[in-house]
Amino acid sequence: YYFPCQRWLAVEEDDGQIVRELVPVDEAFVKKDSENDGQSLATLGLEQKAKSTTYTVKVKTGDKKNAGTDANVFITLYGSKDDTGIISLKASKINKNKFERGKVDEFTVESVDLGDLKKIKIGHDNKGNSTGWFLEWVEIDAPSLGRCLKFPCGRWLDKSEDDGAIERIIFPAELQTKEYIPFVPYEITVYTSDIFGAGTDADVFIVLYGSDGICTQQKSLCLNKREQRMYFERNSVNQFIVEV
How far apart are CA 110 and CA 87, in angstroms? Predict the structure, then answer.
């Protein structure tokens, strides 16, 4: 069995995850002596994407006194087929300081097929100066499945508040479930010219238009400012797997 990764496990790189689930792929994808290495890696990216699901997890901290927490927060997603195991929510895409009063934080979670999401478990390790946390809600969006679920909480995760629990199992609110056309993964290859000043550090985005006039949403190719500085250099070729 071959389990390629080709991804960072780092809070400040890629999507910020430090744990990854890998899926087995055909032996041909890991042969480095192939003449079509670039194409093989591109196809590999789509192959892996087809076998996994990317979830966008939004977490809302309540707007109450001392609602924020400095503790390490974790989450587990439970589906009809499987669960993710414990995932640390390390790198928020929105805020440098996570889980502050009244703020929404956004995280990326990747997993193999879980089936329909049934419940989540979320909690913290009670470590740090200010550990008590008031969790308003969690929203989990799976673009490849075309479903967005809301998990209301509205309770303290604090040893000195409420019932003293620091982790909770919460269920989706059926009336707040949104369904839409599932997103499709595309492999995008960008060739930057070899003329003076050709590169850019700007936020490069893409919109795809179909023959019937329907178009996708605007999708940034880079996940963060660090990637904006790394990619689209003069005389470079960059590949991206994006869901739109």
Answer: 10
Surface-to-core class of residue 30, CB atoms within 10 Å of its CB (0-12 exposed, 13-18 middle, 19+ buried): middle
Closest among 45, 25, 2 to 238, alpha carbons compared: 45
List 55's β-bridge partners, or say none. Answer: 109
Residue partners of 223: CB distance under 8 A and separation at least 6: 14, 15, 93
Backbone angles phi, psi at 135, to 5 degrees: -95, 120
Phi, psi for 11 (deg, rounded to 5):
-60, -35
* 221, 213 Cβ separation under 8 angstroms: no
Topology given in CATH for the domain delimited by 53-179: Lipoxygenase-1 (2.60.60)
Local confidence pLDDT in tens for the 244 residues of the chain: 888 888 889 888 877 888 888 888 777 666 654 555 555 555 677 777 777 888 999 999 999 999 999 999 999 999 999 999 999 998 888 888 999 999 999 998 988 889 899 999 999 999 988 899 999 999 999 998 999 999 999 999 999 988 989 999 999 999 999 999 898 888 899 999 999 999 999 999 999 998 888 888 899 998 878 889 999 999 999 988 888 8
For residue 179, what are its two tokens?
Answer: 């369904």
Closest CA relative to residue 71, chosen from 159, 171, 162, 137: 159
Give every CB contact of residue 184 below 8 A, 6+ residues apart in sequence. Answer: 144, 243, 244
> How many CB atoms lie under 10 A from the CB of residue 93?
14
CA 44/CA 25 separation, integer angstroms: 8
Q: Which residues in the chain are classed under CATH 2.60.60.20?
A: 53-179
